[in-house]
Amino acid sequence: MPGALAYAEIREGSVSRASREAVGLARRIAADAGGETHAVALGPPGTEAAAAQLAGFGADRTWVGESESLELCQPDIAAAAIARLVEAGDYDAVIFAATAQGRDIAPRVGARLGRSVASEVIECRREDGAIVVRRPMYAGKAIATLRFTPGPAVMTIRANVFAPAEESAAGQVSSLDLESLDGRVRTTALEQGDRDRLDVSEATTIVSGGRGMQGPEHWPLLEGLVEALGDEAALGASRAVVDAGWRPHGEQVGQTGKTVSPNLYFAVGISGAIQHLAGMRTAKVIVAINRDADAPIFGVADYGLVGDVFEVLPALTEAVREARQGS
Amino acid sequence: MKRVPDSATRVRVTPDGAGLDPAGVKYVVNPYDEFALEDAIRRKEEAGEGKVTVIALGPPETAESIRQALAMGADEGILLACAGSHDALSVARALADEIRGREVDLVLFGKQAIDDDNMQVPQMVAEFLGLPCATVVVGLEIEGGKATARREVEGGHEVVEFSLPAVVSTQKGLNEPRYPSLKGIMAAKRKPLEEREVTLDAPTIEFLRLDEPPAPAEGRIVGEGVDAVPELVRALRDEAGVL
Ligand SMILES: Cc1cc2nc3c(=O)[nH]c(=O)nc-3n(C[C@H](O)[C@H](O)[C@H](O)COP(=O)(O)OP(=O)(O)OC[C@H]3O[C@@H](n4cnc5c(N)ncnc54)[C@H](O)[C@@H]3O)c2cc1C
Ligand SMILES: Nc1ncnc2c1ncn2[C@@H]1O[C@H](COP(=O)(O)O)[C@@H](O)[C@H]1O
Asked: What pTM, to 2 d.p., does this model score?
């Protein structure tokens, strides 16, 4: 019976949430066909320990490839190893999280296998045996429905849309031979800023500030709210704020920034231009704080609060802190 | 380079779900491809020699977008005419076939086409050509056939090294694309633009339909000013269950 394969990213020795979502979907697809769920994890010596976690997260078999050169992600080696695994195995789906790595590697794998790739999938089901997916196009202004022809369905899945794999009986861990695999590009460094702070694309709660914040010196107000919201929260920004140099581009949400689907999104002093909405309209709950009751952001917000950010934020931060402590 | 609907376009889907309703749609050069074009033109200007070729696959109207690229400073254009496709694999194969056999140092793409939002074509072209590929690049230094690129990843940047020829996909931050000058626009009219029909391979993913996204659930205004804060927090905790 054909199974499904998920690519698992190991970060700082543990399996990322996005990867658990990929394993979760692989498990569902494999279960439909009565096949096995496999995961593949690559990294430096010692990765096997992290892979053991995967085995406890619903992967019947976890392939682990270890090499000194994989201290950093090497996309060509990953693509070659995964393509080889798929050619030798029996998989009808190959699933990546739509992260920087997943987006980079999945098309390389698709090309090697001669298979099309569906990016940023938000729905996946089987119809008469075929894998049918839905994915946003035109910055989320339309949703396409696509059907894979028989053969492995290669896809990246949008973060925070599919349920992550739950803990389950431990599967097997097998080592993957990376011998003779070489990269045409070599990743030599990873420069990460403040890793204490989650990137906006990884957060389940986002507090984004716009021009209504009036200046970069007022960001501590937003940082306070992020902190009150807990470890899974991160800061975002509108383009107006990034263009003004108040915040780094890495925080920008929207068409020319990042696309996010958190559980909770706060738009603070953001008008709600169509290009901003393109990046966050699929958030599960949207809160807008704006002093202009006619601001378009209220049109997509689940909860709107009309008011001045400088008055509202301190009170909101305090109330959120209390509510979370109480729960 | 791809011709795409302007990002401000109101996207309307035809009632049968077959695709985008073309009425009132304004088309532009894919914004990310402008970074790629700008990079190519600058390198040529700095070297004082070389040639920038623009290749675009799409419907015949794509010629207009190629003229824009020529007006920016590219030297020649090639239009691979076909109805277009949402399938990156077959597009990449056609582009790779066109590039193969040409003497190139650098094949530049945008990181993403803003219509299909695939982020796939550059990596696939690189695989078909057997070339190194760096994606989502915001910094690119080249010296003596060796390249160092900075690419955007979650929370930071990665540095990748490779030798030329290579494929690079560009992201905002790499440069500030120029506007075509009047002189450039005049010159573009006399630059060569070759047009050829291509047939794409059958995709391994079939396009079934396009739909507009569901209308957002009716939201509500919880109130005004600080007084509304307790109600907001109550709603987030008890109704939405997100606190
Ligand atoms: C090709 C293209 C791509 C783009 N990509 C993006 C993108 O990726 N992301 C993005 O965000 N934008 C993008 N934009 C820009 C977008 O069109 C808007 O210009 C931008 O989102 C506006 O940012 P803003 O909401 O912060 O600012 P504004 O539109 O100026 O809104 C500020 C808001 O703050 C409110 N406000 C002011 N003071 C206060 C106060 N004291 N208390 C409460 N509220 C207050 C105002 O009522 C107003 O609604 C793009 C534009 C183009 C053309
Ligand atoms: N039809 C096309 N013709 C020429 N270049 C294309 C075409 N489609 C995509 N590209 C290039 O590939 C990049 C990524 O596109 P995509 O993978 O479709 O998101 C774009 O920014 C373009 O540079």
From this structure: 0.91
Name the token pair of B62: 């794509």
What are the tens digits of pLDDT across the range A150-201? 999 999 999 989 999 888 777 899 999 998 888 999 999 999 876 667 889 8
The Å distance, Cα A245 to ligand 1 centre, comes to 14
Sign of CA dihedral A75, A77, A81, A87: positive
Bridge partners, A285 (sequence order): A264
Q: Tokens 């010629």, residue?
A: B63
Minimal CA–CA distance to B137: which of A16, A187, A244, A234? A187
CB B176 within 8 A of CB B167: no
Counting every residue written for chain B, the total comes to: 243
Peptide bond into B165 cis (omega under 30): yes
Q: Tell me if A83 sits within 8 A of A109, measured CB to CB.
A: yes
Of the candidates B127, B162, B172, B159, which has an alpha carbon nearest to the alpha carbon of residue B142? B162
A245 close contact with B: CB closer than 8 A? no
A86/A98 Cα distance (integer angstroms): 19
Q: Are B203 and B85 within 8 A, CB to CB?
A: yes
Q: Which ligand is nearest to the CA of A280?
A: 1
d(CA A115, CA B122): 15
Name the nearest CA neighbour of A155 among A90, A91, A85, A107. A107
